[in-house]
Write the structure tokens for this entry.
Amino acid sequence: MDLLRTRAVEILETGHLSATHFPAEALTQIFPNLPILYLDQRDILRGGHTNTASRSSPIKLAQELRPTDRKCFRVLLCLGLFPFWLHPAAAQSQDARQIVEEAQKRARASSQKYEGLLRVIDPRGKTTEKRWQSQRSGSFGASKRVLRFTAPAEVKGVAILIINHTDRSADEWMWTPAIGRERRVAMQDRSTRFFGTDFTFEDLEEWDVDQYDHKLLGEEDLDGLKCWRIEGIPRKTKTSQYTSIQIWIRQNDYATAQVACYVKDQIVRRLKYSQIEKVQDIWTARVLEMNDLRRKSRTVLTLDKLQYNVPLNDEDFTVTGLQRDR
């Protein structure tokens, strides 16, 4: 009976059916208050490891279970633990959010800094280069970030402060040494290109799981690795130029592999992550390529001297600190 209890608890906690036979009467004794759904007059629960598709409905699950000795099966559902068996759409949304949450959890760090080389390739194939320094305190919706150009001379010293929020769009301030003042970046300007690159001001913000409603669209191979493809719809509190985004998250390490940005049904930008490697136990893309599909231009950002969890000065992430040239 103890072994039966242990296996039954495992079913309820993991959603994985055991190949062991479980007489329904014994399970009822173990869980006397368990809500039970009877699909038909079936006596025994038996099955193998189930995937997301086979958990989509109790009827489909019953059809997949193998009969034994001409006895049929009674499938029990704990309504408090398995509401997705009754509501497949809710399960899909929940699963997608959990994947994104896990991806953010694995990428979380107290801080990050790097030196970036940007190669901007225009529609005619002409390439120009820019360099910036990036410092970030915190992660995702609880982060602050400063980007400061170091080359070429015409943009050297130009900087942007981005204060991200979990429940709304980020606040952004620009500092331009040539005019000696800072200005707040208005929401209506967030869709413009950031100093000739293919990143817009909005693209510099950090996406947070709480800013979007997520839906699992399926699985796809990308660069030889299986990925989840997840749609994100901005919530009402998130002001965005994009109607939706689609994120490809690698199943083996939860690293983001690609992001596609849509305006209505048209994909307008695609951000590709490559040279993904472990840096201080965080899977990190060393190269990011943003493609502007309407302009037919692209910007390749290479991350050098990348470090996580380094001491940073909180005063640097203020409007006053933004004005201090490095």
